[in-house]
Design a protein that fits this description.
Aminopeptidase, seven-stranded mixed sheet, globular, 7 strands, 4 helices
Amino acid sequence: MTMITTRSSTPEDAEAVSACVDAVSRERRYLGNTSGFSADQTRAFIASLLDRGGIQIVVVADAKIVGWCDVTPFPFEGMSHVGRLGMGLLPSFRGQGLGRRLVREALSQVFAKSCQRVELEVFVSNQIAVALYEREGFVIEGRKRFARFLDGAGDDILIMGCLRDEWPHSRPPTCRLQATPGLVLVDNRVPLARVPEPGR
């Protein structure tokens, strides 16, 4: 059975994160770049995130990094409350709820700091990602028409944003807990089942 965990990255993860980003980039579908970054570039990026109050969460499957989600604060005066989100997962780990887990964990950490807005760009053709971001509280704020032309196909880019005050997961959901045999709360941020009403 594969053991899957999430945690914050460190500069020591640079080679593994670099390889993961490169693999997703070379699919030529989901990221703006079509190849990744070197281990040295990745190490410097992770270190800069730590210095600037950003975050990078990685998914680890049996000691191998298979995905990431980072939020990079803007460096400009008057915009330091804004972060830019980027993420990716290796193909064999998609469709398992890990994208939602990554986004939610990253937002919970940056919104607990000074970040008040997170934005991202996503290709219109990546409808699975668009739906994920919408479920996690992002709204479409704009559209760049014909922003990419690659391998004979054009694509638009959606600009999406999420405000801390509007994020639906900023507070644990309220529910009336009853003495229901066998009820286990795994994570109070993600309701797994509806608590039955009295007499139902």
